[in-house]
Each structure stands twice: as structure tokens, then as C-alpha cells.
Design a protein that fits this description.
The chain is built from three helices and eleven strands, in the order βββββαβββαβββα. With about 210 residues, the chain is α+β, with helices and mostly antiparallel strands.
Length: about 210
């Protein structure tokens, strides 16, 4: 989707590949599960003919806060806007910020956020996938290119000598989705929180013990 303005082109960039879910099972929900996640990195956005400077992402980091995240949303179809259904909802981004080095010592910056899972069937399936992915990566095993893909609206400058157009400004972000082979380095880094049973449930159990012999 391209919208031409007086100052140049305002372009909606979908940085997504495909991630096909397995059967979505019910069961214990991901209540309280929060990940630290890279949402987007500077440099060339692969397959898009676009390069984004670090300083553009740094000043745009607040735009990535409070975004919905969906599982591999479908592309737009003729006569449709292309936004996914709520059955694909995975979670929301919180505390989005620019970090200078991710991982530490790499010299590579990124927009990072806390990624809080929703209580949906899609999120329950996705929690098992990400938890296993993080364990296998920590063990040094090969892992598939599962990650996160932002959908920003950007202002583009002219093409450079290498043919890439540079992002002059990010003016908005629609969502950050879970995909296969993200184009701009989005990935999960670690588990930040995993809550236990709700407090009310714990209180009921304690009350039951007090009433016993």
C-alpha cells in the first residue's frame, strides 16, 4: 500500500514471511508470560529494497509501544484492508525502547520491548513454540528463523548508489507480528515473567485446608 504525499512517498512496509500454526489446543493459558523481544533492527530490510538508519529507529521507538501482535496475518486481498482476525491475536508490546547493543557487546542496536502474551488459543500454542525455541537456542542447537515482523509506515528518500531507498522517517506502526524469516531482525530474546496460579485460586485452596480436620 503506497500513499503519495507532498513530501514524498508514505509507504506501508510489511516485513513478513510465513509461519504456519499447528493445531491450536486449549488448556492452561499463558497468563503472565512476558518475553524480552527485539522488534526491529536498523540496516537493510531484506527483500524490500529499503535501508533504515539507526538514528531513525531510535527516535521512533515510542511508536512501537502498545502494539497488537498477530500470528502470521494474511496479506491484503482485493477490496479488503488485510488486517488479521482476533482469533490470531498473540499479545501486545510494552515498554518499547531503543537499546544500543542487543545482545550486549554486539555493537548492534535495536528497538526492544516487553512482549506480553494474550490469553488466546493462538497464544497458548505460540508460547510452547517460543519456549522450546529459546531452550534449543540456549543449548546451541539449530533453530528455525522464527521471529517478529513490524508493519511500519515510512517516509522514503531517493535510491542510493546501491539501489536501496533510505528510510527518512517512521510515521506510524500498525502491528508487530510473529512470522517465519522476518526481514528486519525481530526475535525473542528471553522469558521475563511467567506467573503462577491466580491469587484467588490460591486463597480458595488455603481456605479448603483450614476447613479440613
Amino acid at each position: 500500500m503506497i500513499e503519495v504525499t507532498m513530501s514524498g512517498e508514505r509507504v506501508r512496509v510489511e516485513l513478513a514471511g510465513e509461519l504456519e500454526p499447528g493445531a491450536l489446543a486449549s488448556g492452561a493459558g499463558p497468563r503472565g508470560r512476558v518475553y524480552r523481544a527485539v522488534l526491529i533492527r536498523p540496516g537493510e530490510w531484506l527483500g524490500k529494497g529499503i535501508r533504515c538508519p539507526a538514528e531513525v529507529l531510535e527516535r521512533s521507538a515510542p511508536l512501537f509501544n502498545g502494539l497488537a501482535s498477530f500470528l502470521n496475518p494474511p496479506p491484503p486481498q482485493l477490496g479488503e484492508h488485510g488486517y488479521p482476525g482476533l482469533e490470531r491475536l498473540l499479545g501486545v508490546t510494552e515498554n518499547a525502547r531503543w537499546e544500543e547493543e542487543v545482545p550486549a557487546g554486539s555493537g548492534i542496536g535495536a528497538v526492544v520491548a516487553d512482549y506480553r502474551l494474550a490469553d488466546t488459543d493462538a497464544a497458548r500454542w505460540f508460547q510452547r513454540l517460543v519456549d522450546g525455541w529459546l531452550r534449543e537456542k540456549a543449548d546451541g542447537r539449530p533453530v528455525p528463523a522464527v521471529g517478529l515482523s513490524a508493519v511500519p509506515w515510512v517516509m522514503l528518500g531517493p535510491a542510493g548508489a546501491d539501489g536501496l531507498r533510505e528510510v527518512a522517517e517512521i510515521v506510524g506502526v500498525d502491528q508487530v507480528d510473529a512470522v517465519y524469516k522476518p526481514a528486519a531482525g525481530g526475535e525473542f530474546v528471553q522469558v521475563l515473567a511467567a506467573a503462577g496460579p491466580p491469587k484467588e485460586e490460591g486463597k480458595r485452596k488455603m481456605g479448603a485446608r483450614r476447613r479440613g480436620p
